[in-house]
Every structure is written in C-alpha cells, then in structure tokens.
Amino acid sequence: MEELNKKIAEWVGITDRVPQFTHKIGLCFKYIVPKLRELEFAFNLWDGVGFGNKWLCSALLTHRTWRHYDADAETPALALCLTVEKLINSETNGN
Q1: What is the mean pLDDT of residues 46-62?
Q2: Structural domains of the chain ordered from first start
Q3: Mean pLDDT of the chain, nearest integer
C-alpha cells in the first residue's frame, strides 16, 4: 500500500510526505476528491451491502470522452485509491 500512497501523493502534488490515503477516507476527501473535480470526474462510493461486503468506487468522465474506472475493496478509502490508481495508470499509458 505504501507504493500506492506514494503514487497518489505525487498525482495530487504532495512532495514532502506520503499521506496514508489507503487507510484514511478523510485524507482522500481532502486531497484526492478535489483533484478528481479539477479533472471534471464524477465519482461515487457505495457501501458494501449488496457488493459482497466490499466498498465500490466508480469515477466517470463523460463530457469530452467516456472514461470510467472502478474498483472494490474492504474499506472506502482503499476502494477510492484503487480507482484513482487505474486513472493514473491510464494517464501514464496514454489511454
């Protein structure tokens, strides 16, 4: 998880420390959500009921091109981070 936290910290522009995004939903809302909004992504988090007791996160961009990323995890923070990792990887790979 440390590598994922580092990747997200770089993506949101934090260079002096590596926050524990994957463990703290408050940090996700403080740093990740504003970055998603800046990129004009809508996102949703659903609780584990009906999803095998896992949290589901989905990020969607539709106004220019259809881009959709999603992931599920045991906690909402991790689900959001895994979704954002897919978005970061797609930007890195040019998709």
Answers
A1: 74
A2: 2-92 (3.30.2120.10)
A3: 87
Q: What is the DSSP letter of 31?
A: I
Q: Report the pLDDT value the prediction gives residue 51, as an integer from 0 to 100.
A: 59
Assigned token pair, 42? 């809508």
Is-contact 76 25, C-beta < 8 A? Answer: yes
Beta-sheet strand order (sheet of 67-73): 42-46, 55-61, 67-73
Quote the pLDDT of residue 26: 96
How many angstroms separate the CA atoms of 74 and 39, rounded? Answer: 26
pTM of this structure: 0.86
For 9, the token pair is 């910290």
Distances (CA, A) of 73 to 5, 54, 57: 15, 5, 9
Question: Helices then strands (H, E): number in the chain?
Answer: 4, 3
